[in-house]
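Mods, move this if it's the wrong board.
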Amino acid sequence: MKKSNQSVLVSKLFLLITAGVLWSCEGPIGPQGPPGQDGLDGVTIVGEVFEIIGDFTQSGNFGIRGEYGFDLVESDKVLIYRLGGVDQEGNDIWRLIPQVVFHQNGIFTYDYDFTFYDYSIFLTGDFDLNTLEPGFRNEQVFRVLIVPADRIDLRMDFLNHQAVLNLLGVDEEDIRRYPVGN
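Not the wrong board. Structure tokens:
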């Protein structure tokens, strides 16, 4: 019995030493990879923000359409805010759409959809949209924010327009404004 315990101990010791030697060995160093470009650590992806101004008319099917002028990446998120007025200090009030409005004639909604190339903002309602006052249809101002996927924080409150601008690193004075046809 004594001899078998010693042989088991020797076998375990031999296995331990062999494993230690194999782990400590390194193979030959491979060839050097191609050099990268100086000063570029990778792709910098920034969000785009721009304003559009347009009218909702019957001839335009109560919609505003436009193109970005660039292609979106499949994972980008498009957010559109409507200028709803100004507060007591004169600051713009931006409301994320879709936005439901309860009007004396019924209910209508500012809504949008988008593709990788263009967007569409439109009104839908349960009454004749021609009866809407001009303040709801004419010279409407919208902000289109394209948020790259690497900047999306699902815990963020996207209703907070200023927080999203801060996330994108965009200052008010840098936002371009475009009139849009129907």
